[in-house]
Amino acid sequence: MTEKFPAHRFSIAPMLDWTDRHCRYFHRQLTRQSLLYTEMVTTGAIIHGKGDYLAYSQEEQPVALQLGGSDPAALAQCAKLAEERGYNEVNLNVGCPSDRVQNGRFGACLMGEAQLVADCIKAMRDVVAIPVTVKTRIGIDDQDSYEFLCDFIRKVSEEGGCETFIIHARKAWLSGLSPKENREIPPLDYERVYQLKRDFPHLTMSLNGGVKSLAEAKVHLQHLDGVMVGREAYQNPGMLAHVDGELFGSTQPVADTVAVVRAMYPYIERELAAGTYLGHVTRHMLGLFQGIPGARQWRRYLSENAHKAGAGVDVVEQALSLVADKIVVNA
């Protein structure tokens, strides 16, 4: 019997404008075990917005909602709505360094307000039974000592009741660097996250930042409870086909990428009937055949044709024909 691992052992990071419901549905075709995250959704959008910011497909499960906000009452209201809608987890964003997010008083700037973060977590935990987690950095600006990080974790866990932390192993500069630069310029410090787990062994700790392969993920899993991968999983989604077998011990066959594309057709048809443009779904699928002959033609054909009026599944099938015969089906 294979060992049963929790979904947070491997997760796909919340990425603004990327991990929408179409992206998550696609990723779920490649990995059945991983935990998927929504884009960050603000409490204001959920409470006051005109759209349904909590919409997702049941097939995406297990899926977690990432919230942006710093008002305990509003966060509690949104957490309750998320639980009612069937989300598996609510995660508080304490890691995004963008100016827009700071102006709303949420994201990485909250690292400097550990008591407020603890209050926010407690307010959510008081009204839901699902896990309430925190995604954060190892520091902000000049507050980047290990002691600062430990003090933050201690207060949020002891006073807020947070039991699970996802640590992006870079600090964030709140001014002077763009969000993109904040993902690349501050150096990664994996050892600091490992040390955090050693010092807080009772807490669940996952690592995020710079992970490019499942081989790297396995190394981190020798020290931590989970690994979260962002851009690599999005730009090279084919790697996700191997996650269940390599990290979760699944004995199911590795997902055949051509079959994965065709498994998307019923979903695409449903979405087209509801008024979604084909390109809104297929943009997340462009990197699927990375490294395979024909991948460039696949990307180009979809990019040039998916946004045309009336574009449907036939466009995807035509793009697939440019690459499918060059693929050796995974054993």
Q: Can you describe what's shown?
A:
This protein is α/β, with parallel strands linked by helices and 331 residues long. It folds into 2 domains: 7-248, Aldolase class I (TIM Barrel); 257-325, Four Helix Bundle (Hemerythrin (Met), subunit A) (Up-down Bundle), CATH 1.20.120.1460. Helix content is 40%, strand content 13%. It has 16 helices and 8 strands. An 8-stranded parallel β-barrel has the order 1-2-3-4-5-6-7-8, surrounded by 5 helices. The two termini are 21 Å apart. The mean pLDDT is 94.
Index terms:
eight-stranded parallel β-barrel; single chain; Four Helix Bundle (Hemerythrin (Met), subunit A); alpha/beta; 331 residues; 16 helices
Helical segment count: 16
The succession of helices and strands, N to C, reads: EHEHEHEHHEHEHHEHEHHHHHHH
Strand tally: 8
What is the mean pLDDT? 94
Shape: globular
Proportion in helices:
40-55%
Q: What's the main sheet like?
A: 8 strands, parallel, barrel
Low-pLDDT stretches are none
Q: How far do the termini sit from each other?
A: 21 Å
Assign the CATH superfamily of the largest domain. Aldolase class I
Number of domains: 2
Rg over C-alpha atoms, rounded to the nearest angstrom: 20 Å
CATH hierarchy, class of the largest domain: Alpha Beta
CATH-assigned fold name of the largest domain:
TIM Barrel
- Beta-strand residue fraction: 5-15%
What class, by secondary structure content? alpha/beta
- Read across the widest sheet, the strand sequence of neighbours is 1-2-3-4-5-6-7-8
| Name of the CATH architecture of the largest domain | Alpha-Beta Barrel
Oligomer: single chain
